[in-house]
Write a structure and sequence with these properties.
Elements lengths: L13 E9 L5 E9 L4 E6 L2 E3 L12 E4 L5 H4 L2 H15 L1 H27 L4 H44 L4 E8 L6 E2 L7 H14 L1 H7 L10 E9 L6 E6 H4 L2 H23 L4 E5 L7 H10 L6 E4 L3 H8 L12 E2 L2 E2 L1
Parallel strand pairs: 5-10, 10-11
Antiparallel strand pairs: 1-2, 2-3, 3-4, 6-7, 6-8, 8-9, 12-13
Helix pairs in contact: 2-3, 3-4, 4-5, 4-8
Length: 344
C-alpha cells in the first residue's frame, strides 16, 4: 500500500481513521489510527488507550485480508515479498511468532551494526569482536530455529486450505504447490518428517560458524531465515491425473492469468486459515481486484462472496456492482460513490 505520508490530504499535516469493530462473539472495540506528517509519527488507540501498533492489543486482534493489484508482488516479486506475506499471516494468528520475529529482527540489526562499525572504524580488537559475535550468534541460532520451525509447521497446516481454494478456482488438471527453501538447511520443504527445533538450532550454529570469517570481511550477516524463500509451483496434468506432465516455478514460467489465480487462492486460504485459528470472520478488503480477473473467475468469486463476512470492495466499473446485486438483496449491500476523496 501507499506510505502513510502519502495518505495525508494536500494542504493538511495529518489524518486519522476510526472504526468500531464487533467480532463474531459480539465483543466491541473502538480503534483510532492517526498520523502526523510533520512529526512523522503514527499513533494507535484502542478504546481510548494508546497502544503499540505491533502489540497483541491490536495486531491480529482484528484479522483482515487485503487484496489489490499490487498484491501480485507476492507471486511476481522477491523472496522478501513472499516472506512478508506469510509472516503477517502467521503473526495475525500467533502472538508468540510475532514476538519471535521481532526479536530475530532486533538481533540481526544489532549484529549488522556491529559488523559495519568494525568494518569502518575498527573500534574493537578482532578477539573482542569475535566474542561479541559469538554472543549474537547464540541468540541468532535460537530465534532463527524458532522462526523456521513455526514457518515449516504452519505451511504443513496451510496446505489443505490452499489445495481446496486452488481447485475451486481452477480446472481439475492443474495443481498448485507451496514449498519452502531454507538457507539454513539448504533443503526444500515440506518433507515427510520436518526437523525438530533443536536440529534447526544446530544447523544454524554450524552455518554461522562456517560463515564467520566471511561475515567479518563483508560486514553483513550471511545466514538465517531472513534469506529463505517460499517457492510456488504449478503442475499441469494430462488424462492421467496421478501423473503430472509439466511442473514449473510460477515466478519464471507462469502466465499472468496463472499468477492471478495462484494469488487469489493464497488470499482465500489466508481468509479461511485466519477464520479457523481466530474463531472470528476476518474483514475482506478487495481493492479494484475484479477488473484484474477473467469472466470465469469473476463469476466464481462473486457467487462465493456470500460465504464470507464483511467485505469492502472497490471498483471503477459499475457493471461489477450490478452483478453483485443479482446475488444479494438490497439490505445486504451498502453502496458508496467516491469522487475526489469525498463520499457523495
Amino acid at each position: 500500500g501507499a506510505a502513510e505520508s502519502d495518505c495525508v490530504k494536500f494542504g493538511s499535516n495529518e489524518f486519522f481513521v476510526e472504526s468500531d469493530f464487533i467480532n463474531d462473539l459480539g465483543n466491541k472495540d473502538f480503534i483510532v489510527i492517526s498520523y502526523d506528517k510533520l512529526k512523522k509519527s503514527k499513533a494507535v488507540h484502542r478504546n481510548k488507550q494508546k497502544v503499540n501498533s505491533f502489540s497483541a492489543e491490536v495486531f491480529g486482534r482484528f484479522p483482515l485480508v487485503f487484496l489489490s493489484p499490487k498484491s501480485l508482488n507476492i507471486t511476481y516479486g522477491n523472496p522478501s515479498d513472499r516472506r512478508k506475506f506469510f509472516d503477517i499471516l502467521i503473526s495475525q494468528s500467533s502472538n508468540l511468532y510475532l514476538d519471535q520475529l521481532k526479536e530475530l529482527a532486533k538481533i540481526l540489526r544489532q549484529k549488522s551494526a556491529l559488523l559495519r562499525e568494525y568494518s569502518i572504524h575498527k573500534k574493537y580488537k578482532l578477539a573482542d569482536l569475535k566474542n561479541l559475535l559469538n554472543s549474537y550468534n547464540e541468540k541468532l541460532s535460537e530465534f532463527s530455529a524458532k522462526v523456521l520451525f513455526k514457518r515449516l509447521n504452519f505451511l504443513k497446516e496451510f496446505e489443505s486450505y490452499f489445495d481446496r481454494n486452488f481447485q475451486f478456482l481452477l480446472k481439475q488438471d492443474h495443481r498448485g504447490k507451496i514449498s519452502y527453501y531454507s538457507d539454513i538447511t539448504k533443503e526444500v520443504f515440506p518433507e515427510d518428517a520436518l526437523p525438530e527445533r533443536e536440529e534447526l538450532k544446530a544447523f544454524t550454529e554450524k552455518l554461522l560458524s562456517e560463515k564467520y570469517e566471511d561475515e567479518i570481511k563483508r560486514a553483513v550477516t550471511l545466514a538465517g531465515p531472513q534469506r529463505d524463500d517460499y517457492i510456488f509451483k504449478l503442475t499441469k496434468y494430462g488424462k492421467d491425473l496421478n501423473k503430472g506432465t509439466d511442473t514449473f516455478e510460477l515466478k519464471n514460467f507462469a502466465s499472468q492469468g496463472e499468477h492471478k489465480t495462484f494469488l487469489l487462492a493464497l488470499k482465500l486460504s489466508e481468509y479461511d486459515y485466519l477464520k479457523s485459528t481466530k474463531s472470528t470472520s476476518p474483514v475482506l478488503l478487495l481493492d479494484d481486484i475484479l477488473s484484474e480477473l477473467d469472466e470465469d473467475r469473476v463469476s466464481k468469486i462473486i457467487s462465493h462472496l456470500k460465504d464470507y463476512g464483511q467485505i469492502f470492495l472497490t471498483t471503477t466499473d459499475r457493471n461489477y456492482i450490478n452483478r453483485l446485486k443479482s446475488f444479494y438483496s438490497d439490505s445486504e449491500i451498502s453502496e458508496f460513490k467516491i469522487e475526489e476523496g469525498k463520499v457523495i
